[in-house]
Every structure is written in C-alpha cells, then in structure tokens.
Amino acid sequence: MHAKPESGTTLKESFWDIDSWIFDLDNTLYPRHVDLFAQMEVKMNEFVSSLLGLTLEDASHLRHSYYKQYGTTLRGLMIEHHIQADDFLEYVHDIDHSVVEPDPLLASALRSLPGKRYIYTNGTQDHARKVSERLGITDYFHDVFDIVWAGLDPKPNRAPYERLLSQTGIKAERAAMFEDLARNLKVPAELGMTCVLIVPDQMRPVFQGRWDAEGSEAPFVHHVTDNLGQFLTDVLAATGRRQEPSPAKP
User: Fold this and answer.
1) Band of the pLDDT at 71, cuts 50, 70, 90?
2) Can you give the residue range of the structural domain that contains 40?
C-alpha cells in the first residue's frame, strides 16, 4: 500500500505522480458559503414531513438521526420506510442552482491537471451536471459517479470507493481525493490515496460534531485548503506537470 504523505509534506512530494483526481461535489467544487445544502435541507424536511405526517421540526430531527445512523437521509428512509429512491432524489435536488457562480481559476486548473478527473458524489448525476455547468467546468471531467451508480451505498462506506477503483482502473497510490468532510477521507487514505480536506472560507465556521468531521488534524487528512482553485494552481506550479489545456470530453 502507498505510504501516506507525512504531516508537512510538500505539494511537490505529495502530487508529483498523481494521475487521477477525484472530487466530491457539494461544498468542494464550489465554496461552502454558496450553501446549496440549505436548499436541499428544506426539501428533505418537506419530503419527510409529507411522507410520515410529521411537523417540519420533527421531520428535521428524524432526518438528522437517519443521517447519523445510516450515512444519508435517503438510506435511512429506504431502510426504515421502504421508499423509492428516485422520488426522493428528484425532489431534493430540484433547487435553484443559479447561486453557483463561474470559477475561472478552478476551470483553468482542472483542465491543466495531468491525467484524469472525476466527480464522486452522494448526490445525483443531474445535480452534478447543473453545478458543473454553473461553475464552467463540465468539459474537464472524464466521468461522474453518483449515489445511484453506487447502488445507493453512500460515502463514507468502503464498498463504493473500492468499486470506483475497480471500474476505472485508478491506482490508489496515484490518486488524490478532495472532500469537505474529513470522515469521507478515511477510506481513501487507507486505500493509499492522497487526501485533501476543503474547509470553509478563511478556515472558519467549522465542523459540527466529531462524527460529522474529525477535523484537519485527522491522520487521514494530508492537506487542507479553503480555496480549491488556488490549491490546484499551486499544485501545478509546484510539480511542473501541467498538461496542455484540453477538454476531457470531445
């Protein structure tokens, strides 16, 4: 297994041989302050309230308990109430994506990364498409892996990460994973990936609860940044491995 980067490892040492770049979507490819999840929380509460005849407050409490117990609200609803996943996913991701602004720095860095770039999200393909279109980065990814592709088995569970490696042929020791939740980096680090935690702007409003995120000091967090576009730009400068800018898709 690939040795994890030690604390204080330079960008050049960590990324000089990386040729697979795997990005979470929400609060990773766009800044946390955009807060699309606030819209999705409202939709999830409405769905649970309507499904079970609960007040919105009680629906919110139940949803949080399912999230903690099962990894996602959806998985909890499927296990406890046998709902159809498609209905939930379509309703929850029907939100206003116009608040996501183009990110030219991120787009420039992504298209110059050597190797292949992927999105791996607990959301849906359609949600990922809408976000990436708003950011202006759609053409710079080779594939998108969503919760449906994962068989509705969410991060941080190990099986979908292993399936991702198996299906794509990615070598974990030559892969980097970017996430906004530290707990979702534990398995990638164990598999041998270089792991980058995306934190809120200015390294501020932090992680709520140890279960939800174990913080930047976690042994499976190798690098921390509050600006993904700048971080990738710095990686390219440090490694000198910039490839000729070209879209991933024809």
Assistant:
1) confident
2) 36-92
pTM of the model: 0.87
Say how far apart CA 245 and CA 243 lie, in whole Å: 6
CATH of the domain at 110: 3.40.50.1000
DSSP state letter for 97: G
Kindly calculate the radius of gyration of the chain based on its CA atoms and give it in whole angstroms. 18
Find all residues with CB under 8 Å of 243, minimum gap 6, and list them: 112, 113, 114, 115
Q: Rounded to an integer, what distance in angstroms lies between the CA atom of residue 198 and that of residue 230?
A: 12
Residue 156 shares a structural domain with residue 108: yes
pLDDT in tens, 180-218: 998 899 999 999 999 999 998 655 444 333 334 444 456
Over residues 90-115, the pLDDT tens digits come to 999 999 999 999 999 999 999 999 99
Residue 245 within any structural domain of the chain: no
CB atoms within 10 A of CB 79: 12
Strands (E), the chain: 20-23, 116-120, 143-145, 175-179, 194-198, 223-225
Q: DSSP string spanning 190-231?
A: HHT-EEEEE--GGG-S--SSTTT---TTSTT--EEES-HHHH
Residue 249 covered by a domain? no
Residue where a domain stops, chosen among 75, 92, 109: 92
CA–CA distance from 160 to each of 18, 27, 78, 178 (Å)? Answer: 21, 20, 18, 16
Q: Which residue has the tokens 């994506």?
A: 97
* 194-198 vs 223-225, strand pairing mode: parallel
